[in-house]
Amino acid sequence: MNTKESKYFQKLGAKIRQLREEKEIDQKSFAFDCEIGRTQLYMIEKGRTNPRLLTLMKIAAGLEISISELLRI
């Protein structure tokens, strides 16, 4: 990943974490509800990975927002 991509994924991960915490859902429960691994969610929230579209769709559904709203940062 280049610097621009890395910064985007860090912002996206921070947004996911913020929205999850606003709903008062711990990381383990949220990952289970979204049918993704807790380690995978951790890596996404830290901006250390490029999540697949299907994973982002699951996260958006878990946060009860649209995928476009999730990606708007």
Annotation keywords:
single chain, mainly alpha, 5 helices, globular, 73 residues
Description:
By secondary structure, the protein is mainly α. It is 71% helix and 0% strand. The chain has five helices and no strands. The protein has helices spanning 3-22, 27-34, 38-45, 53-63, 67-71. Helix 2 (27-34) crosses helix 3 (38-45).
In a few lines, what is going on in this structure?
The protein is mainly α and 73 residues long. It has five helices and no strands.
Helix content percent band = over 70%
Please state the CA-atom Rg, rounded to the nearest Å: 11 Å
Residue ranges: pLDDT <50 for 5 or more in a row?
none
Tally of alpha and pi helices = 5
- Largest sheet at a glance? none
**Strand element count:** 0
Structural class determined from secondary elements: mainly alpha
Strand content: under 5%
What global shape is seen?
globular
Instruction: Quote the distance from N terminus to C terminus.
Output: 18 Å
Q: Provide the residue-averaged pLDDT.
A: 96
What order do the SSEs take from the amino end to the carboxyl end, as H and E?
A: HHHHH
